[in-house]
Amino acid sequence: AHAGSSPPDSARRPPRPPLISNMVAAEQCCLPISEISSYVQRWTIRARVTVKSTLRTFTRGNNPGKVFHVHLLDVYGGEIRASFFNEAADKHFDLLQLGKCYTLSRGNVKIADTRFNPCSHRYELVFDKMAQIEEVDDDEQIQAVKLSVMDLRSVQSRQLPFSADICGIITSVAPHISFTSKEGKELVKREITVADDTATSLSVTLWGERAKQEDKLFEGNPVVGLKGVMVKEWNGGRSGSLSESGALVFSPKIADAQRVQRWWADGGKEQSITALSVAFGGGAGAG
Questions:
Q1: What is the Cα–Cα distance from 97 to 52, expressed in whole angstroms?
Q2: Which pLDDT tens digit goes with each residue over 169-199?
Q3: From-to residues of CATH 2.40.50.140 in the chain
């Protein structure tokens, strides 16, 4: 350009912002789960299904119904429980797959019932036939499960009963067994013993499909994260039972898992372990 002439248009224009990927654009239009409340009327959340219950039938008065529950976790670490009743249960039970990511909107917000809801959110969601749910691309930034880990020494001293998330090494595993309950239900269970770097162990019962997973998954002292373990008194000791609304994750990508793995490798396996649970034979041991 000649001296004194205006610079070309391209030089005057500010640089164009980079194109936003679909994933980021989707995030920008979504509300963080932590901000869901009864004061927010219209919202869309984007989350991973980290827990999914079975489809349960019930009778209220003379009216039959059905329901299932999921836990939803977003990229910011917010977690909330959602329930699907009747038509919504029929429509979305097969669609919502454990571990996959979705956008969800048009749900109702209510105060969480902490008797049945292990999530720490003050609210929970209820979806009916108006629910809008779409599967989206997987987001690696969203964890597989959110654990608020309590070490097993703390499990030893807390007042019973209570629910806890634990993370440790599987030190022993029993085969799964099938039996019939007093109510005539066919049940499957498996006992595992989990120890952590407080040199303390707890026996935990797994149920149903979790118990029926292949034996080799439990062998070789894998590190495991357990969400929603109900701890109760049993036979003079303490015993855990993984609730239906809980989660079982092998090799979770969390600092607690790395720490107990290091402890085990650096001599933990040789340590004397304090067993909180009394074995069936009357003796205590971590196996």
A1: 8
A2: 999 999 999 999 888 889 999 999 999 999 9
A3: 28-135, 152-275
